[in-house]
Amino acid sequence: MHKENSKEFITTTALLGAGLLMAGPSLATNSKKMVVHHVFFWLKNSSSKEDLAKLITGLQTLKKISTVRNIYIGVPAATEDRTVVDSSYSASELLFFDDLAGQKTYQDDPIHQKFIADCSHLWEKVIVYDAVDV
Amino acid sequence: MHKENSKEFITTTALLGAGLLMAGPSLATNSKKMVVHHVFFWLKNSSSKEDLAKLITGLQTLKKISTVRNIYIGVPAATEDRTVVDSSYSASELLFFDDLAGQKTYQDDPIHQKFIADCSHLWEKVIVYDAVDV
Question: Which segments within B50-122 are labelled E, that is strand?
């Protein structure tokens, strides 16, 4: 992770983003902007360390998918207990793609499909947030 | 973002994470692991481009906080419309910190406090997810 590069990126894209905001409603559909894909999983057996380990092992296979630019697999952090913080999930995957096409390729990749086939019995709930940089 | 570095990082920490999982319940409270802080905002006036622009301008001030290692400000991406995807939010901020202390410093920083004071009237709902790398 390179702090300064990222900050320059934000500064540059901030101007671009502001322009797009004024230009019309096409901001989120620009197919060439970086996509952040964040998925939160709630295990059926939320207290099972074995099931959590199986899920994390499955998530780690996703890094092999060609369009994945960065991947971070997490569990809830011990930050302050505030009402706005949802720490009820079991594990999370945070993926970066170059663009919408990269995300679609990931969805259809056999490695991703195998992960779902192998692990989906473990979870009872999933929430996905897909964001594009402004 | 450097793909190969990140993948090596995951590979290395996967082994560490597996060890921690077996060692006990202290995984999420390891204070020296990287923290991913992802916040989703729902505007009161969800169709107001002006309010969205104000919120994004406010979010962009957060990059100046010293413990912020990376920041990505986003809006919902035009990915597939699946039942698990929540695209109802207005904007998101994704921040990386070196550790729990960095996240706490950010919460208390005057720039963050000013953002809340200036912008909190714009939103009706916030959800925060804090994750540590496994």
Answer: 70-76, 91-97
